[in-house]
Amino acid sequence: MNTALKHIISIAIIIILICAAYSNSLDADWHFDDTPNILTNYSVHARSLGEIWSARNMNGSFPRYCGFVSFAFNWYFHEKDVTGYHVTNILIHAAVTVLVYCSVYLTLTLPCFSNVKTRTVWLASLFSACIWGLSPVHTQAVTYIVQRLTSLAALFFMLSFFLFIKGRRYMLAGSMRKGIVFVSAAVPVYMMAVLTKENTIMLPFLALLYEHLFLRRIRSFSDRRAAGLVLLLAVGYIFLVCVRPGALKMLTNISKGYEKREFTLIERVLTQFRVMVRYLTLIAFPHPSRLNLDYNFPISKNMLTPVTTLFSVLFVSGSLIFAFLARNRYPLAAFCILWFYINNIVESTILPLEIIFEHRTYLPSVSIVFLLIVLLFRCADKDLGVRRLPV
Predict the structure, then answer these.
(1) Which residues are CB-neighbours of 370 under 8 A, at least 6 positions away?
(2) What is the mean pLDDT of residues 381-386?
(3) How many CB atoms are closer than 10 A to CB 124?
């Protein structure tokens, strides 16, 4: 079987499985934040195709513009009929899953993993995408209509990341013109991700990490590759501040945001260590009985109240130390661990947001599922995930 046919079969399998898995959710009604964001947000009630582009956030602001334009698009065709919204959500999720497959495949076929068998690469990529796409932990991100903001942001994020990988592969192979086209295309897609949900702003940092671990070592930040990606991160932040001025105010006056919360900044940070462990266990064992739309998650008052806070701090710290120590011999494991934590930075650190939501695992869980599949497939191919060539 040639490579092109394998990819066509894989993409077909992914789309069929995703659509079949979520086919019973097409009549799920409106819930919670669907009302202020869509039902009573008159800016998305488009009566013509031209009005679709006038969609705004529920408070009339510009942030998350791409997501609200998609809601306006659905309203124009379906108004309050939820079926069209769910079909769109499912197709977005299927597209993200396809991009997960493509990104995993491109990664496992890099020169630094050249010893891995072709069949192993294909099956590991397909299983990683399917297991991730079919995970029950994504139920909230896919079937809760307004959480399209999460899946659509992930779509732009993964597309930008895919374009970056593809472009850098062309560059390293000597096709500079093609490489520049792909890498350049990744930039506006990244901006679209930021315009959908703010947690995607960390993409350039992950691209920098990917470059360092898998492509070519970055010896210092004076390296033009590092400088370019750091500059892009800065541009992304400036872009976010321009479209959402409140973001700067939130960062410079974080304490004020906690005045309306039942927990302090320190308590939230301590609690997030336990939340990280909870997310990881949900990704590894997403049994429906463990899933919850609205958690009543106990707050950590100090390192010993509850005592699981201390254990969680030790676990998270230990996993980060392992990632650092394993970066040379097992760069794949190191990258997957860091992907999970970096993609949780915006929503799971110091900002005065709600403590826990399962949809926050959507993008971070990509690497954990990938890592678990790699560990499983290493039983058949010991070279999988081990760097053999110097970079």
Answers:
(1) 100, 104, 128, 132, 336
(2) 70
(3) 25
Encode pLDDT of 258-300 as tens digits.
Answer: 988 999 999 999 999 999 999 999 999 999 899 998 888 999 9
How far is residue 183's CA from residue 315's CA, in Å, rounded to a whole number?
A: 36
- Give the 3-state secondary structure of 299-325: CCCECCECCHHHHHHHHHHHHHHHHHH
- In-domain check, residue 305: yes
Contact between 366 and 339 under an 8 Å Cβ cutoff? The reply is: yes
User: Does the residue 57 lie in any domain?
Assistant: no
Residue in this structure with the two tokens 């899933």, named with its chain if needed: 291
Give the span between the Cα atoms of 234 and 232, in whole angstroms: 5
Question: What is the pLDDT at residue 161?
Answer: 97
Q: How confident is the model at residue 232 (pLDDT cuts 50, 70, 90)?
A: confident
CA end-to-end distance (rounded Å), the chain: 31
Q: Report the distance separating Cα 249 and Cα 266, nearest Å.
A: 20
Closest listed residue to residue 113, CA positions, set 123, 102, 125, 121: 121
The answer to whether residues 178 and 184 touch, using CB atoms and an 8 Å cutoff, is no
Residue 388 domain-assigned?
Answer: no
Q: Which helix (H) or strand (E) holds 168?
A: helix 148-172
Give the global pTM.
Answer: 0.94
CA distances (Å), origin 49, targets 70, 118, 252:
12, 47, 39
Domain that holds residue 170: 3-30+80-377
String of DSSP letters for 308-375: HHHHHHHHHHHHHHHHHHTTTT-HHHHHHHHHHHHTTTTTSSSS---S--GGGGTTTHHHHHHHHHHH
Alpha carbon distance 226, 204 (integer Å): 10
Element (H, E) at 120: helix 118-133
Number of domains in the chain: 1
